[in-house]
Amino acid sequence: MALIEATARQRGMASCHSCHLLCRLPSEEREGRFSCPRCGAALHSRKKNSLTRCWALLIAASILLIPANLLPITITSALGHTQADTIISGVIYFIHSGMWPIALVIFVASVFVPVVKLSILALLMFSVQRHWQWRPKDRTRLYRLTELVGRWSMVDVYVVTILVALVKLGAVATIDAGFGAVFFAGVVVLTMFAAESFDPRLIWDAMEEANE
Amino acid sequence: MSPLLACHGCDLLTQIPPLPKHGAAYCPRCGSLLMRAKPNSIERSLALVLASIVLFAVALSFPFLAMKSGGFEQQTNLITGVYLLYQQGMEGLATVVLLTCVLFPLLQMTGLLYVLLPVYLKRRLPRAVQVFRFVQHLQPWSMMEVFMIGILVSLVKLAKLAAIIPGISLWAFALLIFTTAAQTAVLDTHRVWVALEASDGTD
């Protein structure tokens, strides 16, 4: 593979975010006013306001994470007895009834992934702002990973939907959705937007700065 | 001349050599996948999209789970869950589930059919470029496979409460996960863009 020792930006070019066509940007100042000749998406050398947008979404998601974990996600009524369950109490229930694999799935998807995802994105942004040159390849990989796993956190929201639909057995038992589920869906959507607004090329820009 | 590409992970310019069958090119600096050769990409994707649409129609029209307890029997399909959430005043949550499990997957399938069929027939339809761009954007927001895991977790959760009877829709849904995953894997977006560009030149 022939290697050209330059980035698209150094050559005054930009790769289209949408179709990956390599385009020439006429001038640095007017950047962002152009659209890709092939697919029509707006052309930017780097995603616009990447860090600001990502931080805003990240902070919002972190705030929502608190009610998402504290408020009940399901309220079960069976034979006059009502029980409100949070995500954690659901996990504990599964551990107590010996269903380890399910407890693990819910814990990883609903607790571990969101928290780790928020921390990794915060670390990546911090490292970009500080112009770190530390292991850019691993940091790029870390970003790809967070981008990929985020959607799996939706599992518990779907579980609630299914339970609500299925358990309507008259006087015997009912399951209602709790507001924790609403906040939880909010966390997943916001973190997905946050990951989407981060530009991994910022990680590598520090390397070029160091070479110049 | 072989195409010059900028890596979307680190912006490095790379000349991509002609790839062997099933070969792939990775960025020499950051290791991101640059391009992968996918033989018969359009034909295969098209076949899988058609299969997915049929399976999705089945999944939507039949109940996917039924629950039996005492004299009661409760059936549910994809839409009832959304509807009941809506009735309980959880409009936002109902919308999120409706979008990610029904509307986005549906838009993705029909959008791909709209783009790929004309490319296969060497014709062109209006706004194919915009439709394909939109479909690519929807990709992460269509979460049917996550929903499938949700169904499995619910099954285990309810197994103690009552007898659960899986419906036709559940099997259709399970197959659908495979056809859509396979379709994503075989689709060569680069080839589609080149084909769309060629047909768009007449404007």
UniProtKB/TrEMBL annotation, chain A:
The keyword Transmembrane helix applies. Pfam families: PqiA (PF04403). The keyword Oxidoreductase does not apply. Keywords: Cell inner membrane, Cell membrane, Membrane, Transmembrane, Transmembrane helix. GO terms for cellular component: plasma membrane. It is found in: Cell inner membrane. It comes from the Bacteria. The chain crosses the membrane at residues 55-79, 99-128, 149-171, 177-195. This is Paraquat-inducible protein A.
TrEMBL record, chain B:
The chain crosses the membrane at residues 45-66, 93-117, 162-182. Its main location: membrane. GO terms for cellular component: plasma membrane. Pfam families: PqiA (PF04403). It comes from the Bacteria. Keywords: Cell inner membrane, Cell membrane, Membrane, Transmembrane, Transmembrane helix. The keyword Transcription does not apply. It is found in: Cell inner membrane. InterPro entries: PqiA-like (IPR007498), PqiA-PqiB_transport (IPR051800). This is Paraquat-inducible protein A. It comes from Syntrophotalea acetylenivorans. The lineage of its organism: Bacteria, Pseudomonadati, Thermodesulfobacteriota, Desulfuromonadia, Desulfuromonadales.
